[in-house]
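Collaboration report, partner site 2.

Our partner group contributed sequences for two proteins of shared interest, and the home lab folded both. The records are reproduced in the order in which they were received, starting with the first partner submission.
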Amino acid sequence: MRIISYNVNGIRAAISKGFIEWLQHSNPDVICLQEIKATEDQVPYLDIEMAGYPYQYYFPATKKGYSGVAILSKIKPNTIVFGTGIEHMDFEGRNVRVDFDDLSVMSLYLPSGTNIDRLSHKFRFMDDFQNYVNELKKEIPNLVICGDYNICHKAIDIHDPIRNANVSGFLPQERDWLDQFMKNGFIDSFRFFNDQPDNYSWWSYRAGARGNNKGWRIDYCLVSETLKEKLKRAYILPEAKHSDHCPVVVEIE
């Protein structure tokens, strides 16, 4: 199974930049999208179906044009779960999960901490999400949690760790949470195969950041340790430019 995670920063904007054609060519079995900024009726459902994805699950935010996640799949899932059942998460459209025979795939969009209020909201979300996953793993041990975590795990995952030391997304508390989350039974699939620097998944639109590769790696495909022996490949696709993020990929046998 080839799984892609992609924060599209507005699915309609991404489509106008050739996203559907890219999707057809890239041909994953499942793609997890974040920040779709659209409701299902605003998405060209038939065009995406014609590209090979008859199973489409959209979970938008209550607020129009904001947040939202989706999963597109070639394979029919057994179960689809919209949200976590935790109200302060779900109204912002930040989690959708599909269950297949051997594993479950989740599209997650963790909040950013752009100001004090949002940072507080982010920490609350992180704690409650950890508890949610702890319970979920008892029922579904084989989880693939794809998404925009809005956190760089280590210094190698950000172009300038010194100047960004006090910036949300690279705060010690955020990094510690992600570290503990992984130690609680998940593998960073990209780092499982690649220990090299200068691999990023998001770049600011300012100051030619992408052209100069001054980026952050904040998008992950985290895979349950129970699937470790089935991991085949994991990589980043920086050449895909429909968004300020790029896709990240994991392949599982």
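Second partner submission, folded after the first:
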Amino acid sequence: MIAMQRMMNPGKILLMVMLMLPMMASAQHDDFGTILSVGAEKKIDKKFSVGAEVEMRTRDDVKKIDRWSGGLEASYKLMKGIKVSAGYTFLYDNMEKTSYYDEDDKLVTRGIVSAGDLKRKAEYWGIRHRFQVSLSGSYKIRNLELSLRERWQYTYRPEKTVDHRFIYFDDEEEEIIPGGMSDGLPHTYSSKAKNVLRSRLQAEYKIPNFPATPFANVELFNAWALEKVRYTAGADWKITKKHIVSLFYRYQHVNSDDDDEPNRHIIGLSYQWKF
């Protein structure tokens, strides 16, 4: 019976989940990227704190910078285990917009191209403004802490005019462009606003007399339908009382067909200074 209890130790189960996540996702042929971030948090009093963070993300097997971002957040502890927070993030994105031929396109019906062939592509840097409000609750069972965070997120993308788009076929001449692509005319992408509800369930286990705290979580992104799921496992390493380094692995599965973002494996590293 004692041996059985040791086997079911929550910390060991959490570590097993951390090890299994990469193996569960390894069969997929998806993109790979990284997340690097640096942040600081100032505790004003026992209930109120403020923080700031800058972040860089990569994609396309770490060959391209995906985005830069910087954000501010304030949080307030309502009572034991319950916290509210609000924040703003400025996003500078390396955008990639693509369109593909479908079965009703003229060139497809005439047999010049196939449905699914690349039609147009534009790459440019653009900005987004993001506002968020969160409510978090946590519950401790000995060394295991379970938490649930519900976050409303509003993102606004201003109108953007791109100098040119690459086109791959000449619609007027109905033939493939020599060399595969040529410069198209300038194109304006309309402004866009989006509301998303993010729900994250997390478990973390504090190992006695050990500086690292392993954690695992799953986060759902809903915008009238489930658009994205993130599975994350990692550990927070407390170097000193004020300095914390986090390392994690994440698998991101995208459900929305309207989003150009692919499924992605991510390795993340962050540093936080608390004062």
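Feedback sent to the partner group on the second submission included the following. The chain is about 10% helix and 65% strand. The two ends are 45 Å apart (CA to CA).
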